[in-house]
Amino acid sequence: AQKVTQAQTEISVVEKEDVTLDCVYETRDTTYYLFWYKQPPSGELVFLIRRNSFDEQNEISGRYSWNFQKSTSSFNFTITASQVVDSAVYFCALSAYSGNTPLVFGKGTRLSVIA
Amino acid sequence: NAGVTQTPKFQVLKTGQSMTLQCAQDMNHEYMSWYRQDPGMGLRLIHYSVGAGITDQGEVPNGYNVSRSTTEDFPLRLLSAAPSQTSVYFCASSLQEDQPQHFGDGTRLSIL
């Protein structure tokens, strides 16, 4: 069975601080995909990134970066120089490639960036 | 380009009533799913479908039915609404289950 754990329920930072959101996953599959989604206060769910299990390269997109480590089953998300617009709930998700395996979400981390 | 369309956006029901939440996508996606979002619980999968005519249960299927007669539509039926089904419901679609999901805007459902 697949499982995603986001241990941080809520995080509050002051604007311009860096912040890392943790994601730990469990799966027996060797091929799987990891995702991050953002849910701003307006409520929609926005896709941020998809990473497959064979690609452990870190990814950077502007102020966002992701650190994937298979050795610790983690896929952490860092926001550099946080801004108020980053305030949202962030979800990590896992999809194993064993056929017809649905996407499993973590419970989310609520990030509040204070001006 | 509509993407994933959910209707209605808001609904209030009385306990015991039935209703159908509609979900339609125009991207020819094979994979569709329904989630419910409750405070502190994240997104929990109710039912999903990997193609027309194929559906399967997710983590919390009790009290809900689905069908997938076409690629485009994936309605979610509440057979006899209960207060525990008060939630925000999201429909999502993707090319395959390991591809990024496209989400609808959600349906906020209250059961009195």
What does this structure look like?
The complex is a heterodimer of chains A (about 120) and B (about 110). With about 120 residues, chain A is mostly beta strands. Helices cover about 0% and strands about 55% of the residues of chain A. Chain A is built from no helices and 12 strands. In chain A, the strands form 3 sheets. In chain A, strands 2, 5, 6, 10, 11 and 12 form a 6-stranded mixed beta sheet that branches. Chain A has a 4-stranded antiparallel beta sheet with strand order 3-9-8-7, with no helix packed on it. Chain A is globular and about 45 Å long. The N and C termini of chain A lie far apart (about 40 Å). Chain B is mainly beta. Chain B is built from no helices and 11 strands. Chain B has strands spanning about 5, 10-15, 20-25, 30-40, 40-50, 55, 65, 75-80, 85-95, 100-105, 105-110. In chain B, strands 2, 4, 5, 6, 9, 10 and 11 form a 7-stranded mixed beta sheet that branches. A 4-stranded antiparallel beta sheet of chain B has the order 1-3-8-7, with no helix packed on it. Chain B is globular and about 35 Å long. The N and C termini of chain B lie far apart (about 35 Å). The mean pLDDT of chain B is about 95. The interface of A and B includes residues 33, 43 and 95 of A.
